[in-house]
Amino acid sequence: MSSRFARDSGGFTLLELLVVMVIIGLLAGYVGPKYFQQIGKSEVKTAKAQIAALEQALDQYRLDVGHYPATEQGLQALMTNPDNNTHWSGPYLKKAVPNDPWGKTYQYRMPGQHGEYDLFSLGKDGQVGGSDEAQDITNW
């Protein structure tokens, strides 16, 4: 009897290991997409927060200088004084102008088509339009 006990408690059978691997695979297949979907949502939230911060800096620039920077000056006018304007009191950002969460520059137009200026990111795909993670994130 003792030899049978030693033989039965020697380890897992191949069937038991396969069942465990299938269960782990099913869990990974269910949890993985949900996890990566949350990462995409956080990138969109980050872009919205960065656009809001850039809007505040642009508004402060306008209060000091009297107008928003021209399209040609772009968002760099928040960091360096364009045209040596005597009313410029920047830099208006603590750090350099950020790229969007996908590594692309934010688009800035003055005058804007949707307001005094347009500030936007083209999203993950870098193309106009889109949905979900590929949607454009705008200030309008």
TrEMBL record:
Keyword tags: Cell inner membrane, Cell membrane, Membrane, Methylation, Transmembrane, Transmembrane helix
Family: Belongs to the GSP G family.
Gene Ontology biological-process entries: protein secretion by the type II secretion system
Taxonomic source organism: Methylophilus medardicus
Record gene name: gspG
InterPro entries: Bac_GSPG_pilin, N_methyl_site, Pilin-like, T2SS_protein-GspG_C, Type2_sec_GspG
PANTHER family to which the protein is assigned, alphabetical: GENERAL SECRETION PATHWAY PROTEIN G (PTHR30093), TYPE II SECRETION SYSTEM CORE PROTEIN G (PTHR30093:SF44)
Membrane topology: Single-pass membrane protein
Spans through the membrane: 12-32
Compartment(s): Cell inner membrane
A Pfam cross-reference name: N_methyl
Annotated Gene Ontology cellular component terms: plasma membrane; type II protein secretion system complex
Location, primary (coarse class): membrane
Domain Type II secretion system protein GspG C-terminal residues, every copy: 35-140
Protein name per UniProt: Type II secretion system core protein G
SUPFAM superfamilies hit by this protein: Pili subunits
